[in-house]
């Protein structure tokens, strides 16, 4: 599982002359760690924040919006995106497949917001096929 966020961090050797460790500290590191923990809940491999998503090249990476959450220790909600993969193949195939997937995911999320989870699960099963696990 991977959590991605962008921001300013303190990086370097931390400790004393007798015991030293290389590490990173800062708000961006903490948020990335929280996002990594959300991967399990959303059953995805890679989650990135809205800030990281805005830095990605949209022609090179295919992402889908998962949710908007407020993680522990933060007062401002954070947008969550799943990084599905690197965009490859001919542009015609890529565009048609991406539009089909995005349309299905959008329909599913719209239904899920209205608390119609079993209907949402059926939509996701048509988008993802048999690997979609129906938890309802």
Briefly summarize what is shown.
The protein is of the alpha+beta class and 136 residues long. It has helices at 27-42, 50-55, 91-113, 117-128; strands spanning 2-4, 10-15, 20-25, 46-49, 61-69, 78-86.
- From the alpha-carbon coordinates, what is the Rg to the nearest angstrom? 18 Å
* Count of β-strands: 6
Order of strands, main sheet, comes to: 1-4-6-5
Q: Could you estimate the helical fraction of the residues in percent?
A: 40-55%
Which helices and strands occur, and which strands form pairs?
Elements: E1 2-4, E2 10-15, E3 20-25, H1 27-42, E4 46-49, H2 50-55, E5 61-69, E6 78-86, H3 91-113, H4 117-128
Helix pairs in contact: 3-4
Please, could you describe this protein's structure?
There is one protein chain. The chain is of the alpha+beta class and 136 residues long. Helix content is 42%, strand content 27%. It is built from four helices and six strands; from the N terminus they run βββαβαββαα. Strands 1-4-6-5 form a four-stranded mixed beta sheet. Strands 2-3 form a two-stranded antiparallel ribbon. Helix 3 runs antiparallel to helix 4 (117-128). The longest helix is centred in the last third of the chain and has 23 residues, at 91-113. It is elongated and about 60 Å long. The mean pLDDT is 79.
């Amino acid at each position: 599982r991977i959590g991605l966020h962008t921001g300013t961090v303190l990086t370097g050797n931390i400790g004393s002359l007798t015991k030293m460790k290389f590490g990173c500290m800062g708000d961006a590191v903490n948020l990335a760690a929280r996002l990594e923990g959300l991967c399990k809940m959303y059953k995805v491999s890679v989650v990135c924040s809205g800030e990281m998503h805005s830095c990605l090249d949209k022609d090179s990476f295919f992402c889908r919006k998962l949710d908007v959450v407020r993680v522990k220790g933060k007062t401002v909600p954070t947008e969550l995106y799943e990084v599905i993969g690197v965009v490859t193949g001919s542009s015609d195939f890529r565009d048609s497949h991406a539009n089909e997937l995005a349309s299905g995911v959008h329909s599913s999320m719209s239904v899920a917001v209205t608390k119609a989870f079993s209907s949402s699960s059926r939509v996701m099963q048509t988008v993802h096929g048999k690997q979609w696990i129906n938890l309802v």
